[in-house]
Design goal:
Blueprint (H helix, E strand, L loop, with lengths): L8 H4 L7 H4 L5 E2 L28 H11 L6 E4 L1 H13 L6 E6 L4 H9 L2 E6 L8 H5 L5 E7 L11 H10 L5 E5 L21 E6 L12 E4 L2 H10 L7 H10 L2 H25 L5 E4 L6 E6 L2 H10 L2 E2 L1 E2 L9 E5 L3 H13 L5
Parallel strand pairs: 1-11, 3-4, 3-5, 5-6, 6-7
Antiparallel strand pairs: 2-8, 7-8, 9-10, 10-13, 12-13
Length: about 350
């Protein structure tokens, strides 16, 4: 018996998302997953009871995130990372075999993978050369589109999508399409958040996470921000116990006044390291383009990216290869590490000989 024949056709054909951990590698400087480079020191409370099921939406965590983002508690849904939020939106609003989602490439690969997994058609619109939305192409492909995903800052390009384009898209799609703004990296440019748009536009949803600036990638805790009518629908679909008790415990500590203070200090540090690294990369002769970034990574185009990737990997420096993504030939993405790690990679790049 061929077990594969029991699987759904779309799963047999699926190309899975290649996460940093799935790709693996051997190294001592990991700059491939946009994680914070150092661990945080939060510990579980002694009162944590693991023999009981958790709350579906832990009250203290909701209250603290509500205070942090300046929204009402009923506008917030907690999930297992922002990835579950991406999936919940599709499962709630899209009919498999009928509706579609849309996103603009290059961008975060899980929009495509989740749509394929559920069996929802997706439309991929290439971005313009300046990594902005091709509005005319989007408008011409809206037939059947229920959800549009926009990553801002965009992963892997690092730029902010133009506000006027998003406003125009929200107006064009009013009453028929949801616009999801993925703000996974927004703490690195907090001035750019669109949370204050929720009171004006009823078809906007915002995704957030504790994985990046809060340095809790291993915790798997994300948030969906929207108006109450949307949150109520998502609550119908989410699993009964999505947030583990230890997750809620640590996340609540991270969102205390002290935890937020520590996060802000980390953001200042990483943004400083990013700006230093950006300026240093501009001086490397075999780099053809360094893309400005508002996030905790920089996209870089090299003359011979394969040689750079392999050489640095052999030295224990693990980057993210973007060559297989359309429009990103020759590109590597570099996560921002500690000042030592940033200095180490620049030293290694300067010592690398590109002669054949």
């Amino acid at each position: 018996m061929n077990i594969e024949e029991l699987a759904r056709t779309n799963i047999r054909k699926l190309t899975p998302y290649q996460s940093a951990r799935r790709l693996g590698g051997q190294g001592h400087i990991w700059l491939n997953a946009n994680e914070f480079p150092l661990p945080v020191s939060f510990k579980l409370s002694q009162k944590t009871l693991l023999n009981r099921y958790p709350e579906c939406q832990p009250k203290l965590l909701i209250e603290r995130y509500s205070s942090y983002v300046g929204l009402m508690p009923e506008q917030i849904l907690i999930s297992r990372g922002a990835d579950e939020g991406i999936e919940l939106i599709m499962r709630t609003f899209c009919e498999p075999g009928k509706d579609a989602i849309l996103f603009c490439t290059p961008t975060y690969g899980m929009y495509r993978v989740i749509a394929n997994t559920i069996g929802i058609r997706y439309i991929s619109i290439p971005m313009l050369d300046n990594w902005q939305l091709n509005l005319s192409a989007i408008v011409n492909n809206l037939d059947g589109v229920k959800v549009i995903y926009i990553c801002r800052p965009n992963n892997p390009t690092g730029n902010l999508i133009n506000l006027q384009d998003i406003k125009q898209l929200l107006l064009i799609t009013m009453y028929k399409t949801l616009i999801v703004i993925d703000e996974a990296y927004i703490e690195f440019c907090s001035f750019a958040t669109l949370t204050n748009w929720l009171h004006k536009y009823h078809n906007i949803i915002i995704l957030r996470t504790l994985s990046k600036a809060f340095a809790l990638a291993g915790l798997r805790c994300g948030f969906t921000l929207a108006n109450k009518s949307i949150i109520d629908l998502l609550l119908k679909v989410i699993t009964p116990y999505p947030i583990a008790i230890p997750t809620a415990d640590i996340a609540s500590k991270a969102l205390s006044k002290y935890g937020i203070h520590l996060m802000c200090k980390r953001v200042v540090e990483l943004n400083h390291n990013r700006n230093w690294l950006y300026n240093q990369l501009l001086q490397i002769p075999y780099i053809t383009h360094v893309y400005p970034s508002e996030a905790n990574y920089i996209l870089v185009r090299f003359i011979n990216s394969s040689k750079v990737f392999d050489t640095l990997s052999n030295e224990g420096i693990i980057l993210r290869d973007q060559n297989k993504i359309p429009k990103l030939t020759g590109c590597l993405r570099i996560s921002i590490g500690t000042s030592y790690e940033c200095e180490y990679i620049i030293k290694s790049l300067k010592n690398l000989s590109m002669e054949q």
